[in-house]
């Protein structure tokens, strides 16, 4: 039996286990199992590997996409440039990290823009500066979309939420939420933005998928903005992870 799984904390509302379990059933894959491994600290990671020697692949979620790097033997070039990993392949005792969030986000947003006939996006705000935001930065640079990072904390090259006034918002087309704000069970939380300044020229992308429509997205929709949650992105990154684990498209 090949064992796969997800590390992060908390993992009470995991997309991955349900997705891969259904995938195995639908495709008649009988020799694979997907489990959740909630780790209160990344320091528990080596013990997890020791206790499950049959592990061949892991997904990584909040808050360990950056912290897990120090435990890897090798990192894919793209993931190394991003500085965050969400997929690990384990082969002959060696761990190699990849970032499939990049694939999932790029495919999702390109398809959505094309489907809805949205004009070329030139600039964006990325809410959050964690591991997930780094993948978004990578894709936006590839798409030649200028972006500004937004954080609760004052950092070099980053603006704070209180800097987001009507003037700033009016010059932005895409706003991507990479924070866990609005994620179940804290469904009532949301990024502090001047939502009244949004209109039909804006696209709000939320990496959160549960609930399907967060307060962030709902407030944008009320102003006429396009909205997109993280569900299609998750499917894309999951399938790319599977390709890596099964040697279909990776080293």
Structure summary:
With 251 residues, the protein is an alpha/beta fold.
Task: Considering the chains and any ligands shown, give keywords for the structure.
12 strands; six-stranded parallel beta sheet; alpha/beta; Rossmann fold; 251 residues; 8 helices
Task: Describe the protein.
The radius of gyration is 18 Å and the shape is globular. It folds into two domains: 2-99, Leucine Dehydrogenase, chain A, domain 1 (Rossmann fold, 3-Layer(aba) Sandwich), CATH 3.40.50.10860; 102-232, NAD(P)-binding Rossmann-like Domain (Rossmann fold, 3-Layer(aba) Sandwich), CATH 3.40.50. The two termini are 22 Å apart. The model has no long low-confidence stretch (mean pLDDT 95). It has eight helices and twelve strands. Strands 2-1-3-5-6-4 form a six-stranded mixed sheet. Helix 7 links the parallel strand 11 (203-206) and strand 12. Helices cover 32% and strands 23% of the residues. It is of the alpha/beta class and 251 residues long.
Helix content: 25-40%
Classify the beta-strand content into a percent band.
15-25%
| Count of alpha/pi helices | 8
> Over the alpha carbons, how many angstroms does the gyration radius reach?
18 Å
Order of helices and strands: EHEHEEHEEHEHEEHEEHEH
Distance between the termini: 22 Å
What structural class do the secondary elements suggest? alpha/beta
Order of strands in the sheet with most strands: 2-1-3-5-6-4
Outline: globular
| The named CATH superfamily of the largest domain | NAD(P)-binding Rossmann-like Domain
- CATH class division of the largest domain: Alpha Beta
Number of strands: 12
Given as residue ranges, the uncertain stretches (5+ residues, pLDDT < 50) are none
**Total of domains:** 2
Largest sheet: 6 strands, mixed
CATH architecture of the largest domain: 3-Layer(aba) Sandwich
**Assembly level:** single chain
> What is the CATH third-level topology name of the largest domain?
Rossmann fold
Mean pLDDT: 95
């Amino acid at each position: 039996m090949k064992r796969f799984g997800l590390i992060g904390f908390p993992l009470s509302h995991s997309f991955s286990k349900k997705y891969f379990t259904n995938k195995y059933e639908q495709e008649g894959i009988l020799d694979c199992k997907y489990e959740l491994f909630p780790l209160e600290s990344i320091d528990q990671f080596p013990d997890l590997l020791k206790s499950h020697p049959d592990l061949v692949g892991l997904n990584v979620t909040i808050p360990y996409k950056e912290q897990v790097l120090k435990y890897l033997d090798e990192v894919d070039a793209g993931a190394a440039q991003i500085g965050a990993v969400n997929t690990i392949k384990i082969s002959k005792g060696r761990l190699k990290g990849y970032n499939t969030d990049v694939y999932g986000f790029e495919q999702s947003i390109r398809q959505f823009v094309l489907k809805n006939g949205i004009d070329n996006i030139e600039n964006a705000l990325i809410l959050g500066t964690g591991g997930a935001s780094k993948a978004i930065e990578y894709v936006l640079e590839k798409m030649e979309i200028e972006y500004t990072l937004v954080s609760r904390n004052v950092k070099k090259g980053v603006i704070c939420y209180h800097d987001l006034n009507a003037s700033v918002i009016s010059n932005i087309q895409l706003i991507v939420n990479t924070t866990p704000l609005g994620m179940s069970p804290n469904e009532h939380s949301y990024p502090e933005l001047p939502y009244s300044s949004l209109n039909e020229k804006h696209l709000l992308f939320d990496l959160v998928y549960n609930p399907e429509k967060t307060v962030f997205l709902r407030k944008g929709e009320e102003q006429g903005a396009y909205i997109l949650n993280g569900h299609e992105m998750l499917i894309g990154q999951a399938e790319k992870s599977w390709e890596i684990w099964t040697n279909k498209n990776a080293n």
